[in-house]
Amino acid sequence: MSKKITVSIPVAIQDKVEMSSIYENQTQTGKFSSYGVDLTLKELRQFRKLKSSDLDVLQCKIESTLESWAKAYERGEKSGNVDQMNQDIAEHLEALNNILKHTLDINDAVNWDSIKRNEPFRIAPQDIIAGLKKAPEQIRFAADGKPMGFIKIEPGPRPMLEQVTASYGLFTRMFNKQKIQTDYEQRQVKWRKECGEVNAENERRQTLLTSLKKSFEGKREVFEKEKAADNAAIDAVRQRYQTGDPSAIEEYCDLVLMASSYPDDFPRNWELEYRPANRMLVVQMDLPAPGDMPEVENYKYVKSRDTIEAKKMPESARKSLYDSVIYQTCLRTVESSSKCTTEARG
């Protein structure tokens, strides 16, 4: 049976991400090893195969990946003028040239609390009750979507005989008082009918508010339970890791590699296996191809032709950069992986 989890996709890439259904990975002997999911964002040439033996942890990995992709996509959307384009190239080249230095300057250890879910519950008002196409205008909502109250309507002022009389001319007031009395009584009937309609509408709004509040609290309760379960799963992995459990060590190392920052267009797929007999972690990681290296060295605006021209990077420079990137990535992976296994108690 296929497994399902609920994932929140950032707005920036909501219609651009392809996500497979959850599948099960198996060992060579046919036993269950982990859950997996494939993510693709073609605009960034990104493809990720994520896995975890725990569905809650897998969900955290998916949302963390999507969040980083959304930030990268938004950075790309901001590029437009020559100065910005050249700045992006310079920053990209600097990141590629400092892949190894990056991991030496930071602590790769996983901050368990930082990967837990701590976001508050928020919901769009129209999503509180299924079927609503837009938020009811007569209901007031807080910033998190919580229904706070409704706009109460009031009937018009009650007709007074003196006011009705004053609306007629002197001749009618003196010689046709019955006409005034009849008009007054009709206005009373109309006003009482309006009061009934207003009360009915206010009761309808109160009923809607009560229903929205009940649904909101129900959805918030489900959200908090799911968040607590996700965080409990993180704690469980942490405890197993600290006692030297092989599958938890693999999970931890996977989290370390996920948290390791690389340039936006860098391939981010790997397979790893922890061998407890000799406390060795085997990592098979995808590396960039030569064609993935930057082709452009800088851009220049040519005013006479009103065009932006690209200056290509010399092929020798691209080859040298590629060699450096490969060596740095391998050394950085070894450095990060060694920290993963030495911190666990076995």
How would you describe what is shown here?
The chain is an alpha+beta fold. It contains eight helices and ten strands. The protein has helices at residues 55-77, 82-97, 99-105, 161-166, 170-175, 177-242, 246-259, 315-343; strands at 17-19, 23-26, 32-41, 46-52, 139-141, 147-150, 270-275, 280-285, 296-302, 307-312. The strands form four sheets. Strands 1, 2, 3 and 4 form a four-stranded antiparallel beta sheet that branches. A two-stranded antiparallel sheet has the order 5-6. A hairpin with a 5-residue loop joins strand 5 (139-141) and strand 6. Helix 3 (99-105) runs parallel beside helix 8, helix 6 packs across helix 7 (246-259) and helix 7 packs antiparallel against helix 8 (315-343). The longest helix has 66 residues, at 177-242. The model has no long low-confidence stretch (mean pLDDT 86).
Properties at a glance:
346 residues, 10 strands, four-stranded antiparallel β-sheet, elongated, alpha+beta, two-stranded antiparallel ribbon
Secondary-structure map:
Elements (H helix, E strand, L loop, with lengths): L16 E3 L3 E4 L5 E10 L4 E7 L2 H23 L4 H16 L1 H7 L33 E3 L5 E4 L10 H6 L3 H6 L1 H66 L3 H14 L10 E6 L4 E6 L10 E7 L4 E6 L2 H29 L3
User: Roughly how many Å is the radius of gyration?
Assistant: 33 Å
* Mean pLDDT, all residues: 86
How many E strands? 10
Total helical segments: 8
Helix content: 40-55%
Distance between the termini: 35 Å
Query: Order of helices and strands, N to C?
Result: EEEEHHHEEHHHHEEEEH
Question: pLDDT under 50 segments (min length 5)?
Answer: none
The main pleated sheet reads as: 4 strands, antiparallel
- Helix- and strand-based class? alpha+beta
Query: Can you tell me the overall shape?
Result: elongated
Q: Provide the β-strand percentage band.
A: 15-25%
